[in-house]
Amino acid sequence: MWQAPRERGRFAGAPVSEIYSAGPLITACGINITVWSYVDQFNISVIADDRTVDDTHEVTDAMIHAFCEIRTAAGLSSELVTVDTAMPQATVQP
């Protein structure tokens, strides 16, 4: 099993504090979900066309709910912890 780096890497001598990634939408693919981790962060990127998903936040909210259920089933707290140094969670703009 592949495991994400547990220590921060460097790029051209500069420390890499965060990594952001998103997969592309390609022909006949209406949604792309990219998941990765780096040091103490677990990241999910959801991109979809508007004919497949009206609001991608519905997908990410459902995933967060499912992760909480998995944590509860494993005997852990269902509360998720926000990493203060990570990029803030996206919000829908009116």
Q: Taking strands numbered 1, 2, ... along the chain, how are they ordered across the largest sheet?
A: 1-2
User: Topology as H/E string?
Assistant: EEEEH
The total of helices stands at 1
The proportion of residues in beta strands is 15-25%
Q: Main β-sheet, in a few words?
A: 2 strands, antiparallel
The averaged pLDDT comes out at 81
Task: Explain what the structure shows.
- The chain is of the alpha+beta class.
- The protein has 1 helix and 4 strands; from the N terminus they run E-E-E-E-H.
- The chain has one helix at residues 56-73; strands spanning 10-11, 14-15, 31-38, 41-48.
- A two-stranded antiparallel sheet has the order 1-2. A two-stranded antiparallel sheet has the order 3-4.
- Strand 3 and strand 4 form a beta hairpin.
- The longest helix has 18 residues, at 56-73.
- The termini are far apart.
Structural features:
two-stranded antiparallel sheet, alpha+beta, 21% strand, 94 residues
Short overview:
This protein has 94 residues and is an alpha+beta fold. It is 19% helix and 21% strand. It has one helix at residues 56-73; strands spanning 10-11, 14-15, 31-38, 41-48.
Structural topology:
Elements: E1 10-11, E2 14-15, E3 31-38, E4 41-48, H1 56-73
Antiparallel strand pairs: 1-2, 3-4
